Amino acid sequence: MSNSNPLDSQQLTVLQALELANAHWNAGQAAQAEQLCLRVLEVAPLQHDALNLLGLMMHAYGMLDKAIDYIHKACHSPDAPAIIFSNLAELYRQKGLLVEAEHAARIAVEQEPELIVAWSNLGIILQEAGKFTESLECLEYVTSLQPDNAQAHNNLANTCQRLGYLHRAQESYQRALSLRPEYAEVYSNLTLLLSDLGCIDEAVASARRAIDINPQLADAYLNLANIELSRMRYADARHWVNSLLEFAPQHVGGLTALAQILIVDERYEEAVAVARKSLAIAAGNANTHKVLGTALQGLGRYEEAEQAYNQAAELPGTVAEEALVARAVLLMETGDMDAASAGFQLALKRFPDSPRVLAACCDNKFYQAGDPDIEVMENALAREPVLPIHEQILLHFSLGKAYLDIKDSDRAFFHLDQGNAFKRATFNYDAKQISVWMKSIAEVFTPALMARFRGAGVVSGRPVFIIGMPRSGTTLVEQILASHPDVYGAGESGVLGRVVAQAGRFPEDVGNWSRNHFLNIGTDYLQQISHLAPDALRVVDKLPGNFLYAGLIPLLMPGARIIHCRRDPVDTCLSCYSKLFSGEQLFTYQLDELGQFYLDYQALMAHFCQVLPPECFIEVDYEAVVDDLDGQARRLIDFIDLPWNDACLHFHKTRRIVRTASMAQVRQPIYTSSIGRWHRHAAHLGPLLDVLGVEKR
């Protein structure tokens, strides 16, 4: 080497310098390794081995963008080997750039067809891009060449699971564990498989096992959080996400999961901030864009929400299906039914026969005999391999609705019974405990307590609470009220339940509260709804389950009004049983439990009728509204102390956001077809009728 060579001081050739750099790196001497690589690049700026090693070092430091820059530059070397393209493919995958990742991986396998790691990387990339059949071919090839490679069997199992080959996936996971018994990633992945099979407790145990083996395995925490979210254990979900973010505060999946939990709590502003933080780290993460859309939708920023859904749908991966459905549902909520219908058709065009899309379309249509979608859904349920349990549930409820529409009671209840049974098996629910709890509420809210704390809260006539059973006409009543120019319909807000929960145990602690407790809780509630339509004279809070707090409302906010919606008990329960709720209606998935809940609710409301101040409380029957819309609408407007407005009679034309299970129905004029509907299905309602004490007719 000449005296001008930067490596000459140690009399090293480029090859020797690289060998020494690798030795330093393998010995944990990163600074020395990095310095040698940089010296090599002064002599040979495109020396691919030096660039590759620097890229791997940057990746180890957590500097993904710098790692990609180095290895991408290495690939520009004319003699860059296939392994460097394979490394670049994996880094692109981690960045979420799946198109670029696939391109680099295909170069690697074309350049060196025997390079197993490149085939493995390509298989994983194709899996994440939703190209499952191609992924399967790659990963089967890898396992054929390396039958004792536990990692290869794990990757193959992941793709089999995505294709719905659940039992084959389970066999591959077990093969991986037989080769490596303490394989944390397999236990984590088994969590998803067991969840798809409906084995929820086993799924949780598998994720915990993964964490025991590797306490810093991020996916295991996310899988646990998703299970807890799916069974509505939100505090547990938050625990696992927070545990992940403690050791990986910049983890994109963890931040996105946190945003989802904040959305459940209706903390939409915080959810938007967290989602945007996640996108600043990985701008191409489709799931984060989708979650951002949901948060923006919650804030009423509908154009931005639609843009976020569109962004998610355009990115490669498997999230596009959910994003397209979410966009169509958003359009349905805003009342643009034609655009919503077109949105569902677009989703079906891109994802033909998708259970998720077919189920989402279900509420937006009335089925006729011979509808081809019915056959598509039946075939999907009958196919091999079987669908994951959550997709089976979606299809059973959708087919139940379709057969109810065409008045085929036997087929409708075959599917409704199946769907409800599958759903009921995913959570714990104690009907007796709920009965005891409701009785305890009545015991607390005595006439003496109501008199003792009368006037304790903050006086406000702004809130109007619509309460009752789900599917009892609450959405119809809200739509009538919200058609008045001085009324804002806030939909199903969880604010009241949250502010009460923050104050203590309900109802146990209520008797020990001071008057200031009631004042503070009422003030807190009013503050949290203050941003909603500030100019509106009335804000309607239509969460049916707020009937539990009916005794508390006049003590928190004297002047607030309560409208209790009633409907025929059996029609109400049938409507609940035929609906797969997105929220927490755990009592609706078994006919006898549903009947018992109705009786408990009925008894509690009968008690409140005796103790609530008459000026703050009225009851409205769904059947009466249908029979006499004009009279009942005028009664409602008079009750909330506003002048009459004819727009209330044309509620179905009102353009406002409706976020409820009944959003499609309130876009239609009053119809009578759902009154007494249960009679034609009485033969299938035995357990419900027995509990309610109603005779079959």
Automatic annotation (TrEMBL):
Q: Which SMART domains match?
A: TPR
Please verify whether the record's keywords include Repeat. yes
Look up the signal peptide feature and give its range: none
Pfam families membership: Sulfotransfer_3, TPR_16, TPR_2
Biological process terms from the Gene Ontology for this record are: protein O-linked glycosylation
Keywords noted in UniProt: Repeat, TPR repeat
Gene Ontology MF terms in the entry:
protein O-acetylglucosaminyltransferase activity
- Ranges of the TPR repeats in the UniProt entry: 116-149, 150-183, 184-217
Is this entry keyworded Repeat? Answer: yes
Please give the name of this protein. Uncharacterized protein
Its source organism is Mangrovibacter phragmitis
